[in-house]
What we know:
By secondary structure, this protein is an alpha/beta fold.
Amino acid sequence: xxxxxxxxxxxxxxxxxxxxxxxxxxxxxxxxxxxxxxxxxxxxxxxxxxxxxxxxxxxxxxxxxxxxxxxxxxxxxxxxxxxxxxxxxxxxxxxxxxxxxxxxxxxxxxxxxxxxxxxxxxxxxxxxxxxxxxxxxxxxxxxxxxxxxxxxxxxxxxxxxxxxxxxxxxxxxxxxxxxxxxxxxxxxxxxxxxxxxxxxxxxxxxxxxxxxxxxxxxxxxxxxxxxxxxxxxxxxxxxxxxxxxxxxxxxxxxxxxxxxxxxxxxxxxxxxxxxxxxxxxxxxxxxxxxxxxxxxxxxxxxxxxxxxxxxxxxxxxxxxxxxxxxxxxxxxxxxxxxxxxxxxxxxxxxxxxxxxxxxxxxxxxxxxxxxxxxxxxxxxxxxxxxxxxxxxxxxxxxxxxxxxxxxxxxxxxxxxxxxxxxxxxxxxxxxxxxxxxxxxxxxxxxxxxxxxxxxxxxxxxxxxxxxxxxxxxxxxxxxxxxxxxxxxxxxxxxxxxxxxxxxxxxxxxxxxxxxxxxxxxxxxxxxxxxxxxxxxxxxxxxxxxxxxxxxxxxxxxxxxxxxxxxxxxxxxxxxxxxxxxxxxxxxxxxxxxxxxxxxxxxxxxxxxxxxxxxxxxx
Length: 618
């Protein structure tokens, strides 16, 4: 009956195509469980499911393919087993990190007709987006946050990709706010979870650098430094399981440290002064376990001491404990510590349930939203894969889907379906580069030098002799107009292998039209069946007016050679590009060279000459 319904919608011929298609689902969580069920019921011939995680108790209320008995089992395998009894196609589960190129190389991605993203990790979503761009296969991107949700079909080269729009940066707080002057409940939760719990039970962490403290007050800086040093004794008690010191830990955290903090007059001129928990007594916690209740300060002290004791008893055996919102001891420790601190600083206390949302960075999942977004993703895939006979195959005519009422896009309808936009011309993933795979024989990689590879690329694609080569997968500069030290080094010694992404560019203008060759991103693949080097044909696209490029950078040169902002060399000899740099820096260096052509010193020589300022990574 299910097959009959789908056939009626798309027709017998298209349904046969559907049954022959192999698709990839990345993520088997809230959306992934719903989406896997949909894909199986639609009749896709083969569905691969990738997920790194195992099932936690907190997953069970919204990830409906899992049961209590499945806790700690792999999500992908469990989800596949759950839908297997009503699947007529082939199901394959993979437990692994989708960003692992050794396990999931580009060649593997190319085997799918489409990819469905059901991830909650931005880095992984960006990686899948990039692989879809390289492979030239459509991607169905989806996500939810409470009542909000969206589906974005991505057709490489035709529509916006995941990176075409900026993503929100997580909020951060200065160390001084967390350690000295909290004013919101979230500040107290961060102190309890990221600072106190980590210091007592986690892996040893380095003290914050002076520039990260967020204050210039000498007294406050001195107190933070002193407090960090005194924590060593508390750490020793916690790590050795010395439960006799529970009272001492409570007194140090909520009495002694608070007294010292209250004495710094400059902090409290415009803020209420904190009040230490003087004369406290520790007793047994009550039997109440209501996570939504708001306990009094004495109950918080009792429960903090009890959870501290239990965690200290675990330390000698476990060595370290990582915070987990599903660890009852860890959650109670963080919740009670946060509320005691809130009480001290005259901040509203929260229930354990509310603190769990903050400590776990959780936006409560709404199962209905997951189901709606998964259903829309499955339906839109019929358009993306051109399985609907009555709809023209125009990528820009494809709809996105937003929960418009929740997102406040519209007050009179729940869903909005705006049309897709073309690629953002400023997108660093889908607009700035051409991209293709570069296949090298596994044995040839051991003898092929970087210089030989560069020469082959120059001859094949028409680049000048002044190319820049950047390994964007590791952020290393391998070659530049004045840096050819690595040209004789083999790809193997440079640790280039399957999954390495090389960006090749130059800014030498064409004699005909004063434009430069569009940069190319190469995805390196090692192949045992290939003996040499295989380069695919690419159109010879020239973009960017030479004068416009020069003008944008000429202010930096100002008639003198400008040293690059790169001063770190890794063990292979490659220059490590700092995070804030971008791949346009290579072009900037060329413009600097133009202003002082007599300076022919290599980048390596410059680094060695300034050895006192250079960090060498061995």
